[in-house]
Amino acid sequence: MLLLPGPEDLTSLVLRVDFGDEVRWEACQETLSGSGDDRMATFVSDIGFDGVTTQRLVELDTGADLDDRVFYLFVADSTTLGDDEFPLLAVDLDGEPGRTFRVPVAFFADVSANLSIGNMDFAEFADAVDATGAYRGFN
User: Fold this and answer.
1) Which domains does the chain carry?
2) Model-level pTM?
3) Minimal CA–CA distance to 113: which of 45, 43, 35?
4) Could you tell me if 76 and 16 are in contact, meaning their C-beta atoms sit under 8 angstroms apart?
5) Which domain of life does the protein's organism represent (predicted)?
């Protein structure tokens, strides 16, 4: 049975769902890891998640025991790996399950840090996206 892995303490889960380009996945991880002084991400690259949909992620989290729930995660999909900004797909698994927005790597640390400590909620970021559906800071 497929289970969403929990992120390491005070990091956000970055789940790979596109396995078409190993070099781009490595570049994405390197770019995210270099975006701040503190480790912000727990990277998961498990072929069992290849092509998994947002709806399936919601179902997996909803079916987990409360102690094993993830609540939100970031998905590295074909859109992420095909763009030099590496816009991860942020997925809400709790407040509005299935709600999404894109987060270019330059803004990942801000979103990840605030979500991981509960300083802000998912909707605050999702409500602040630009016309492309990406969060690029509060204006």
Assistant:
1) 12-126 (3.40.50.800)
2) 0.94
3) 35
4) yes
5) Bacteria
Rounded CA gap, 53 and 59, in Å? 10
Chain position carrying tokens 């590496």: 86
Is 15 in contact with 44 (CB distance < 8 Å)?
Answer: yes
- What count of Cα atoms within 13 Å lies in the side-chain half-sphere of residue 11? 19
pLDDT tens digits, 38-85: 678 999 999 999 999 999 999 999 888 888 889 999 999 999 999 999
Sign, Cα dihedral of 120, 90, 133, 26: positive
* Residue-wise burial string across 15-38, b where 16 or more C-beta atoms lie within 10 A, e elsewhere: bbbbeeeeebbeebbebbeebeee
> Residue 34 has what DSSP assignment?
T
C-alpha distances (whole Å) from 81 to each of 62, 120, 125, 126 are 27, 27, 22, 21
- The span from the CA of 11 to the CA of 3, in Å, is 18
Residue-wise pLDDT for 94-123, tens only, equals 999 999 999 999 999 999 999 999 899 999
